[in-house]
Design a protein that fits this description.
2 domains; alpha/beta; Aspartate Aminotransferase, domain 2; 444 residues; seven-stranded mixed beta sheet; globular; Aspartate Aminotransferase, domain 1; binds pyridoxal-5'-phosphate
Length: 444
């Protein structure tokens, strides 16, 4: 049996999807970028269906949101149970799901000190809360961010987002954010010098010897905001010693380390938090996306000793809403009962299989990631590593019409971020469609 047996080209978008898209286009803001005509009707596990009945395998999971897959029975049951009791109560009062979730996140925190948890609705809001707390606690105004980063779209978070100029163009930025290169072992902006352990050391030297000497005193810096694995920037895994160096630098200067785990957290990389792969303890963790399997919820998890802001200094109407908390508690239970382990195992399987596929396709320059956060970097030629941007977009489009949802990231990366409950059979099916799409895209 050839790997492409059973892979059929679908006629998408079908008539119902076309009609829905036409209505959408006349009333929904055009600010959304929508390159795929997928109009969803329902989903179960890693499978989704469109309004014309076409069936897809979902390797996007709402961009790392549907951690437990679509409509996991335990998440749906928790939501039903909570919905019958109450849907909202103001944050002026208390409810148990909120406390239970804060207790749970305390157990899962990636630092030894106890945590204080601030609940929000999204990744952006978790980042905003972290920025405000960092300024409030340190009394300093400035921050360090990274080129290629994505932290959200509200003015504070957007000022750190440096992934595509269209995301920033035409919008005023918050002052006080200095960007430095993200240490990218595949395409380093700052290459390692003789004697450096890796490109991470070159980035740290640039921060200390250039930025901190010529531009900004470290005593003015409240925090460094960093994605442990850069997501929208191209699923970039930093070199081994980077986070230890960054932590040491922050400690030397009294700077807080904020880990944005919105995309990489909640078990996606095979550990609760991606930063744990490097044994480094941040001061604040931002979480959202996968935390509640699709309900809008986020959390800013801070070390107790820095959570010094007084009552009334920050707030949020919907953050900590009972439905989101119930979904999050069920999500964490599903992850603890096997999905986290599964993410590790299927991640190794997918990465090994992709390395084999790379042996058959010169366009694959790099396969990287951890757990089920996997990037396949496509190149024009392996030696130059010039990004094959159009090819990555073609692969995602061709995968779509053959029944696999994939998204590009960075310049030329195809990312795989399936639900953490992905089965081996689904992983194999996804790989077969991916390779088929790549073969077709290369032939064009
Ligand atoms: C690392 C990271 N931080 C923050 C955000 C913003 O999250 P949200 O869209 O939920 O506001 C994202 C979204 O993609 C993200 O990937």
């Amino acid at each position: 049996m050839s790997p492409s047996d059973g892979i059929t080209r679908m006629n998408v978008p079908g008539p119902r999807a076309q009609a829905l898209i036409a209505r959408d286009e006349s009333v929904v803001s055009q600010a959304y970028g929508r390159p795929y005509p997928f109009a969803m009707s329902r989903g179960q596990g890693a499978r989704v269906f469109d309004v014309d009945g076409n069936r897809f395998l979902d390797f996007v999971a709402g961009i790392a949101v549907n951690a437990t897959g679509h409509c996991h029975p335990r998440v749906v049951a928790a939501l039903r149970e909570q919905a019958e009791k109450f849907l909202h109560v103001s944050s002026d009062y208390y409810h148990e799901q909120w406390v239970l979730l804060a207790e749970k996140l305390n157990q899962l925190r990636p630092f030894s000190e106890p945590a204080r948890v601030f609940m929000v609705n999204s990744g952006t809001e978790a980042v905003e809360a972290a920025l405000k707390l960092a300024r409030h606690h340190t009394g300093r105004d400035n921050f360090i961010g990274f080129l290629g980063a994505f932290h959200g779209r509200s003015t504070g978070a957007l000022s750190f987002t440096a992934s595509k100029t269209t995301q920033r163009e035409g919008f005023g930025m918050m002052p006080g954010v200095t960007h430095i290169p993200y240490p990218d072992p595949f395409r380093p902006l700052l290459a390692a010098q003789p004697g450096d352990a890796d490109c991470g050391e070159a980035v740290m030297r640039y921060l200390e010897e250039v930025i901190f000497r010529r531009l900004l005193s470290p005593q003015q810096v409240a925090a460094v905001l960093v994605e442990p694995i850069q997501g929208e920037g191209g699923y970039i895994v930093p070199p081994e010693s980077f986070f230890a160096r960054l932590r040491a630098l922050c400690d030397r200067h009294g700077i807080l380390l904020i880990a944005d785990e919105v995309q990489s957290g909640m078990g996606r990389t095979g550990k609760w938090w991606a930063i744990e792969h490097w044994g480094v303890e941040p001061d604040i963790v931002c979480s959202a996306k996968g935390i509640a399997s699709g309900l809008p919820l986020g959390a800013m998890i801070a070390r107790e000793h820095i959570s010094t802001w007084p009552a009334g200094s920050h707030g949020n109407t919907f953050g900590g809403n009972p439905l989101g908390c119930a979904a999050a508690l069920a999500t964490i239970a599903v992850l603890q009962d096997g999905a986290l382990q599964n993410a590790r195992e299927q991640g190794v399987f997918l990465q090994d299989a992709l390395a084999e596929i790379a042996g058959r396709h010169a366009a694959i320059g790099d396969v990287r990631g951890k757990g089920l956060m996997i990037g396949i970097d496509l190149v024009r030629e392996r030696d130059s590593r010039v990004p094959a941007k159009a090819l990555a977009e073609r692969v995602a489009q061709l995968a779509f019409i053959h029944g696999l949802l994939l998204l590009p990231a960075g310049e030329s990366v195809v990312r795989m971020a399936p639900p953490l409950v992905l089965t081996r059979a689904e992983a194999e099916e996804g790989l077969a469609i991916f390779e088929h799409a790549l073969t077709l895209a290369e032939a064009r």
